[in-house]
Amino acid sequence: MAKLRLPLLLMVLLAVGVALYLLFSAPDYGDINADGLNLGKTAYQEGDYHNAAKWFRLAAKKGDKEAQYLFAMLYRDGKGVQRDDVEAVVHLKLSAKQKFAQAQYQLANMLEYGRGVPAADLKAAFGWYKKAAENGLTAAELRMAVMYSEGRGVKKSDADALLWAIQAANSHSIEATSYLQRLLNKVSAKASAGDSSAQFVLARIYQQGQGLNADMEKAEQWLHQSASSGNAKAQFHLAELLLHSSKPEAIQHVAGWYAKAAEQENMPAAARLGVLYALGEGVELNRDEALKWLQKAAESGLPSPQSNLGIMYAEAGNDALAASWLEKAAEQGDKVAQNNLAVMYALGRGVKLDLKSTVKWFKAAAENDDALAQYNLALMYIRGIGLMQNEDVALELLKKAQTAAGFEAKLLLGMMYDLGHGIVTSSSDAEAWYQQASELGSEDALYNLAALYYRQLKYKKAFDLFVQAAEKGDVEAQNTIASMYQNGQGVDVNIEQSIHWYALAAKHAYAPAQFNLGNIYRKGDGVEQQDDKAVQWYREAARQGFAEAQNALAYMYALGRGVSIDRAKSDHWFSKAAKQGLRIAEQNISVLRQNKSGFTLTSGAIDIQLRLEILEEKPLNLANRLQTYHIAQLNK
Question: CA-CA distance, 126 to 517, in Å (whole number)?
Fold first, then answer.
């Protein structure tokens, strides 16, 4: 018995040892903190599919999308678990719904070939392939190309097949590159055989330089062949190609091709054709034809022709109809329409005046990078119209707008830097913005830049710019350079030139110049003294309410210079000047009424001030200041 007990004891001890070993060395699959995904990957790499399955299951239950995918693959391949396509599909769906591209692709594959599902579902397969392709999975992109090429789960389309094949080939996949070349050969053969759809597809590939080197000449040749066969899409794109052509004669053929496509109910072509008629570009200007085609395209729901219809009706004075179409386009995100609709609300044209709606649509268009709207919104912020005044926000909007909104935004930026509105005063920045605005044709910017130099005592620079403005007919500039000739500022003294420029401004009824010219003749400053001429010019300026000239004319009547002495008229004109706040006129009345002499006159009138009407005008004339699109937009 003792001999039997010993082996039995050894066996028991061995069993206990094995049990203890297994107890302490086996994975704890119940550990919720365990990294099931990575532990599963490690087990899989070691060929331990059984433990890999347990770890993937643990991570999958916790919602890990990659673990769900890997667990599904074990079921699909029968590794570590019994092969079960149904279970594979269940877990693939969980992962695919979390946008895991490889799961989306494998799920699509199972659905395409009817694995784990009652029957193949090509439409559903296509949907999951597309999701995986949109997530950048090359294999899915290639499969999309095949599905389109063969018409599996989707309408057959060589064009879409090529686009997906090109995208897949961009990853340098040998398989994708080979398939792309086969597709190109197939489409080229069909195009050469006269297939208009294939011709159109091939043309677009050449045009876009995808899969083939870009070749606009070949693109135009294939588009022309397809368009001539009646392909509406080709007709539209041929017109587009010709519209953007650098060849001057190309525009003559644009409208014809748009018309052919439009007659086949191609609404983008109808929209383009309407604009060409509205602008008279490539065709004779014809408002009726413009409205006809724009109306047709607008009624199809396209925002661009809706916007253009709104512009045309607004310019024709039909504000209610204009606002209606602009609203439709604006709600679809058309930034041109949003800007113009905002202006309609600001002015109460076709809609009830509503500054809240004005700001709403300006903001929508400004966020859509519309330069006119950014400028308009900046103006609203600067003047505090419809919202709280905020020059900081206005400054940022103007900086965005200045690249495309003409000179107005640059001019305003110059003013803000010059005055320190919303920013620290900076003469150098003001100078730069004024310069840019003046180069774009802003006379106010040119004048302000000259005034900036004048304030800095840079008389030569100021003089040169004032001359530029004066030669364009700016009477203030003419008066200023006359004064600079008279006083030798930035130029040698030249009374003859001074008289020339004073006279030029005076003949355009500019009162300060008339007064200054009167002073020259009264004093005989560089010319023969002629009191009668002095009186003539004083009277012209006085009649316009220029206080200094009224005072001077009263002086001439008081002393009988150039006119007969007339104390009543002298008193009359002194009083008019005094009522305007001219203090020396008040003193002169007292002297006159005491029968004394010693009247006081003012010197030359020159007042070089910044032109800030847009900042100071009260109330701001929104009709004149807000910018709108006033012609149909072709959007080349």
Answer: 87
